Amino acid sequence: MSTEKISSSFYQQQNVLTVARSLVGKILCSQVDDHLCKVKITETEAYRSWGDKACHAHQNRFTKRTAVMFEPGGIAYVYLCYGIHALFNIVTNSESVPEAVLIRSGEPVMGESIMQDRRGAKIPRRRLSVGPGNLTQALGITTKHNREALNGDIIWLEEPDSPPLVSIATSPRIGIDYAGADAQLPFRFFDQNSAFVS
DNA sequence: GTTATGATTTACT
DNA sequence: GTAAATCATAACG
After folding, report:
1. How far apart are CA A146 and CA A77, in angstroms?
2. Rg (CA), chain A
């Protein structure tokens, strides 16, 4: 089994769209409360620093919340949405370029019973780690993990065992109607052959 | 200090 | 199809 962590140089590529597309099919791993869980990423969205009003840090908008996006790529950006859901992003690009990829969904590949416990027994497997709020809940990711380095031992990514058999499609992003025309940008990437997408 | 709001989910009608 | 839950952040006074 491949267990090699994806290195920081991958996240620091200059094109956040390339990173978002490449992340589909990779393995997202978490070790929280002594529980190791892994999912295959099936759905991502890119948030770009320029020409994208949906990005929290568009046009270099710097606040306490967005500060983490100005760090070099390869760390986590986790924030609370609607007061309820932690949303997990991967910061990309180099220092002072605030871009990130939202991880929306994954397919369980390890620690499925742990995820089931975290999500509740009544949740069907198909929805265990589908949807950005559900994914973080399944993996035990919370806002405490904001700024966490992705080359550490808590949250990291791995190459899949075998070349991913994914067929990637694009669409507009979800839940960002406030962004006006930028809501139509095709910055959502997902495996169109997977049932584990929202 | 106050107020508006959301990169969502779930349960309703 | 609509609405409620629920709170940290951001914008404003």
Report:
1. 5
2. 15
Q: How many CA atoms lie within 13 A of A184 on its CB side?
A: 2
In whole angstroms, give the CA distance from residue A74 to residue A156: 9
Strand C neighbours (CB under 7 Å) are: A 56, 61, 63-66, 79-80, 82-84, 143
Ordered alpha helix ranges (H), chain A: 8-11, 16-23, 112-119, 132-139
Mean pLDDT by 10 residues, chain A (198 residues): 86 98 98 98 98 97 98 98 98 98 98 97 96 98 98 97 89 96 97 96
d(CA A79, CA A39): 20
Cα–Cα dist A181/A14, whole Å? 24
DSSP state of A79: E
* A86 CA → B2 C1’, Å: 26
- Among protein residues, the one whose C-alpha sits closest to the C1' atom of C5 is A84
Q: Which nucleotides of B are covered by protein (CB under 7 A)?
A: 5-10
